[in-house]
Amino acid sequence: MIEFYQVSTESEKVSFSPFVIATELFLKHKNLDWDAKLMNYIEVKPTINSLTDGKWGYVPTLKFPNGDIVYDSLKIAGYLDEKYPDNPILINNPKLDELLQQHTMNCAMSACKLSLGDLLIHMDDASKAYFIENRMDMFQITVEDLKSNRKENITSYFDNLKPLIEHLSKNKFIDGDKPLVHDYVLISTIQFIATVSPRTYEELVENNPNEVFKNWVDRMGSLFDGFLKSRKTI
User: Where is each GST N-terminal domain found (predicted)?
Assistant: First the structure.
């Protein structure tokens, strides 16, 4: 079985990385099972460094039964399409790439300001210190940003959803008639919110005034026998 290395909270053992969630969906898309190897933040780099002979230090990282070790979510998607070519995950669409990038830079930023504080509460002290010192830059926010006005960030999130909503008003999924890489990557950022901060998920998704967006989230949550809807949260 595929060994799937993931980062999780210490006590509840909740896997929360959006890149891990996207990779889980890639594996589900290919109908592949995995064995989750959970680690706290300070265990990730030494464990993955050892596994990859120092070439990589992050999650997601997969070790396949044939001995192949693959890391980085989009590279994993490419590997899966190469080794399991039926039902490809990846699609070449620069306009959708731009839509996804816009969402990451704008909506995801507001969501992180609203939700990361709740994640930190559930981390052990060592992982919390490591996250603040080494990983906050990845989200391009500071600890002070976590104290910013919730109402303003919620309003910003809703406003920045407009390009996505416009696209979804004409398409069942971001990638058209069926979900592919853009759907999986974007829903993983939303599932991250649901995982680490249920109150933020309620504010941004459940209380979202736009039915088109909520219907897409519901469709994605219903895939693979409701995998995301039943996925463990904090």
Answer: 1-88
Question: CATH classification of 94-230 is 2.70.98.40, yes or no?
Answer: no
* Structure tokens that stand for 123 in this block: 């981390």
Q: Which two tokens stand for residue 24?
A: 């889980």
Question: Any bridge partners for residue 62, and if so which?
Answer: 4, 70
Which residue ranges make up each domain of the chain? 2-83, 94-230
Tokens 């603040």 label which residue?
Answer: 132
Give the confidence band of 134 by pLDDT, cuts at 50, 70, 90: confident
d(CA 87, CA 183): 15
Q: What is the pLDDT of residue 192?
A: 96
pTM for the full predicted model: 0.95
Strands of 21-117, DSSP E? 34-39, 61-63, 69-71
Instruction: Say how many CA atoms lie within 13 Å of 23 toward its Cβ.
Output: 28
Residues written for the chain: 234
CATH superfamily of 2-83: Glutaredoxin (3.40.30.10)
User: Which pLDDT does position 149 carry in this prediction?
Assistant: 86
Order of all β-strands in the sheet with 61-63: 34-39, 2-7, 61-63, 69-71
**What b/e string do you get for 114-143 counting C-beta neighbours within 10 Å, with b at 16 or more?**
bbbbbbbebbeeebbebbeeeebeeeebee
